[in-house]
Specification:
Length: 439
């Protein structure tokens, strides 16, 4: 990405303030931090605008599979390491559905079943790759039509045969599937189908060098909505090739490799290891022959970790969370909206079997002591959260202050006009405390 000074050189330097910034340099800094768009300055010459737009484009092009609410953007990355600036578009995982499958509904249901709720987030398999094992274009097309009735998410059309792809795309192009299987042998025909139907094309190379050649060929033909399978085989090779490609794209601005990357793998432990490597090092899509739920859960969790912004804690919404059917005399507890705090406290309240109204206070994801030190978990913030949810009207039970911030008790009592009780300093002691209170 260009620096502020590089942007500044292309701006008019009149400091007219029409962009809302006091100077052109201030605007250039906003551009460099991706907090402004070049269109916000009405005085940039069109030539300079084009230069800026090209310079600001991510070194890895964003390619989208699917459409409407069912679309998956891939690529768009700007950095090699997530601590520099978070990774943008999470890798997608697809499971194969052969066009020789004798129970399509059952297979689609299985893919749908790969879904987990983890700290309030839903992890799931993203795509189905419909594979033309039958080598029969008419059968392939019929299976694609049947899958489309059962599966509303994005999908892949997988075949080496341009005739089969052409028939399948004709009935599915409105859903913008990914065509996968453009090799050196069928490249011109596959590219023509992708270009004509405006669907992304998966390039199936046999080496890094061939991937570059085919990528350049697509660009020269005027259609580079492409995803690259570098043809790497083996975990070491995948790691090396995908790292070389991404470094070339980001550090050297080598455009032929500036596209999302994908892998096709089988099933079992080796396939999962392939997906782990690709998740860690720059993959945007892995297609499995099959994936079991006990393999999917750790893999999806890894993805969640890699694609979470390391600078932003995971948070839950400020709200009131009733636990165990609380009534008008149940205790009211509260804590911060840092997800780990919320789920730990919630689990310990559930263990007590005592019904509780749990109020979550928005502290921008900070934990109790950090939020208190930052002035985001004081009597005023807590009262505001109580007022917003109306929790004090739901129960006349005791209001329990987390023991770590016992010192706010006096001010909180004054703010809410209710007596408060100091709770435990450690969450694990909540069950014992609640049980003693309810005796
Ligand atoms: Fe500079 Fe353009 Fe902003 Fe005016 S509108 S201050 S020329 S960046």
């Amino acid at each position: 990405m260009p620096t502020a000074i590089e942007y500044f050189k292309l701006l008019p330097k009149t400091n007219c303030k029409d962009c809302g910034q006091p100077t052109c340099l201030a605007f250039a800094m906003q551009l460099a931090n991706q907090k402004a768009k070049i269109e916000d300055c009405p005085h940039v010459e069109s030539g300079a605008k084009d230069s800026i737009a090209e310079a600001a484009a991510p070194p890895v092009k964003t390619i989208t599979v699917g459409t409407g609410n069912a679309k998956i953007p891939m690529g768009g990355e700007t950095v090699l390491y997530r601590h520099e600036r978070r990774f943008i578009n999470p890798i997608a995982y697809a499971l194969t559905l052969s066009d020789e499958c004798d129970d399509i509904a059952k297979r689609v249901d299985y893919v749908k079943s790969l879904q987990f709720d983890r700290i309030g987030m839903i992890f799931k398999a993203d795509m189905i790759s419909i594979r033309n094992d039958s080598k029969d274009p008419a059968k392939f097309k019929a299976v694609v039509e049947e899958v489309m009735k059962l599966w509303n998410e994005p999908f892949v059309l997988e075949s080496d045969d341009p005739a089969a792809i052409k028939e399948a795309v004709a009935v599915s192009k409105a859903r913008v599937p990914l065509i996968y299987g453009a090799s050196a042998d069928n490249f011109d025909a596959m590219l023509a189908i992708a270009k004509e139907n405006k669907v992304p094309l998966g390039i199936k190379a046999t080496s890094l060098e061939e991937a570059v050649t085919l990528s350049e060929k697509a660009k020269a033909a005027g259609y580079d909505e492409i995803i690259l399978d570098l043809g790497a085989k083996g975990i070491k090779n995948i790691l090396e090739q995908q790292t070389i490609a991404r470094r070339a794209a980001i550090k050297k601005k080598f455009k032929p490799l500036g596209y999302p990357m994908m892998n096709r793998t089988g099933s079992g432990e080796y396939a999962v290891m392939t997906a782990v490597i690709s998740t860690l090092k720059y993959g945007s899509l892995v297609i499995f022959d099959d994936l079991k739920n006990y393999e999917a859960l750790p893999l999806f969790t890894l993805r969640q970790n890699i694609y979470t912004d390391p600078q932003v804690p995971i948070q839950v919404k400020q709200d009131i969370y009733p636990i165990g059917n609380p009534d008008e005399h149940s205790p009211i507890m509260f804590t911060t909206n840092f997800s780990l705090t919320y789920f730990t406290v919630r689990a310990d309240i559930e263990k007590s079997k005592v019904p509780v109204w749990l109020q979550i206070v928005n502290t921008d994801g900070l934990s109790v002591l950090t939020a208190f030190a930052a002035g985001k978990f004081d009597a005023d913030h807590i009262k505001a959260a109580f007022d917003e949810s109306g929790v004090l009207d739901k129960s006349d039970g005791p209001v329990i202050v987390p023991g770590l911030v016992a010192k706010i008790s006096g001010k909180l009592e004054e703010a809410i006009g209710r007596k408060v009780v100091v709770g435990t300093t450690e969450s694990k002691n909540i069950p014992k405390h609640l049980k003693q209170m309810s005796i």
